[in-house]
Amino acid sequence: MQYMLLIYDCVRPEPGDPDFEDALARVNAFADECRRRGALLSGNALQGESTATTVRVREGRTLMTDGPFAETHEHLGGYYLLECRTLDEALELAALCPMAADGGIEVRPIAEVPGIDHTPAGLAVAGE
Length: 128
Fold this sequence. Notes:
By secondary structure, the protein is of the alpha+beta class. The protein contains two helices and six strands.
């Protein structure tokens, strides 16, 4: 089963910061462990919430707001998409994620919705 690990409220040092190399080594060690288990499908850090735009459509009108959803108290900083044998394995990996020490990791199973087609671009059959 696939699980999304959503990383909230972690402090991420930037290149040039004295803590950057250590943080990078810890993140890469975590990704290596996920790869060793055959679990890592993808993962990315997100740019800061100041770069976000929230889009809503209400009564046919598109509304755009700078930043994350207005009532958000926690900020999404990144994610990992994992293929795990069990929820327990996903939770174990979330606890190993170095960002869990500073922020929070929300673990959520990916819903399998019959009929939904999220085939990535480039993988779709020609002519469709």
